[in-house]
Amino acid sequence: MNLQNILQNITPWILSHGIKIILILIGAWLIDRIIKIFISKGVKSFVTQTYRIRDGKALEKRSKTLEGVLEGAVSIIVLLIAGLMVVSELGINIGPLLALAGVAGLAFGFGGQYLIRDLISGLFIILEDQYRVGDVACVADTCGLVEDINLRRTILRDLDGIVHHIPNGEITKASNLSKGFSRVNLNIGVSYGSDLEKVINVVNKVCNELAEDPQWKQDILKTPQFLRVDDFADSAVIIKILGDTKPLRQWDVTGELRKRIKIAFDKEGIEIPFPQMSVWPRGKFEK
Fold first, then answer.
1. Is 29 in contact with 22 (CB distance < 8 Å)?
2. Interval 52-106: pLDDT, tens
3. What is the pLDDT of residue 239?
4. What pLDDT is recorded for position 32?
5. How far is the C-alpha of 200 from the C-alpha of 49, rounded, in Å?
6. Distance between CA atoms of residues 250 and 254, nearest Å
7. What is the residue range of 157's domain?
8. Domain-located, residue 1
9. Cβ–Cβ < 8 Å for 96, 88
10. How far apart are CA 38 and CA 32, in angstroms?
11. Please, what sign has the CA dihedral across residues 11, 13, 19, 21?
């Protein structure tokens, strides 16, 4: 069979099925792109109206999380439908394939209980906005930055740079450290001989100076202040300082506040004690 005969045989197929396959692929790509554009716009509007999120960063994190999940699901569905249409155009009977897929799905259903649990848990995590991409959260006894989340698993990167892949079905408790606002919650010990009124005045003065510092004031939502005497410890009186910061800024603000309080205490002669033990001898001792 020469080239001319091959072209004569294949040309009708190309003009009919070949063109249809190309149109199917182009149509699938266009549909995928168009739906993702609508998802991007719709998600932002939905998040703003439903969750009343006005902060730009919070809105971006919530929107990005939902967009990633929805766009991934849309891509899979469009790809699956387009694949079946292409297979049909190739002259392959998709009936047996669908039957095989049904049998495989049944077998998968018996063995995929954990996967189903992961998917359901992931769905509720996303719908309830428990945490988002860009948040710092503690899930399944692991804390870190949420780098990615979908219906099946959550990816965290901890402070050592280690990446943790956590199936959503294993998450029974999720603690979000950066939702809405964060908090400075600082306990400091001073010696029992310190003048507490002087300590309170020094602490509040340092806190006010920090809140007015141009470098830090944009991170502080509520100026940290002395709250109460929190405890009488073995070697110190423990005072509690509390204030609000922007999400993820509590650690930097708390570190700067510790530094300034230590410098101020040194200038004012206020002692931050270390653990001590006093021994009181009783009875008579021989020389």
1. no
2. 555 566 666 667 777 777 777 788 888 888 887 887 777 777 666 666 666 556 5
3. 95
4. 85
5. 44
6. 6
7. 124-176
8. no
9. no
10. 10
11. negative
The three-point CA angle 201-203-209 to 5° equals 100
Which CATH number is 161's domain given?
A: 2.30.30.60
Residues 242 and 237: their CA atoms lie apart, in Å, by 17
- Could you tell me if residue 222 is inside a domain? yes
Residue 56 is part of a domain; what is its CATH number?
A: 1.10.287.1260
> What secondary structure does DSSP assign to 220-262, as a single string?
EEEEEEEEEEEEE-SS-EEEEEEEEESTT-HHHHHHHHHHHHH
User: Is there a single domain that holds both residue 130 and residue 49?
Assistant: no
Q: Is 86 in a helix, a strand, or coil? A: helix
- Clarify whether residues 153 and 203 are in a common domain: no
pTM (global) more than 0.90: no
Distance CA 182, CA 248 (A): 7
Tell me the two tokens of residue 139: 């899930």
Looking at residue 237, which CATH number applies to its domain? 3.30.70.100
First to last CA, the chain: 121
Phi first, then psi, for residue 4 (nearest 5°) are -65, -40
Which residues are CB-neighbours of 196 under 8 A, at least 6 positions away? 190, 229, 237, 239
Query: Number of structural domains, the chain?
Result: 3
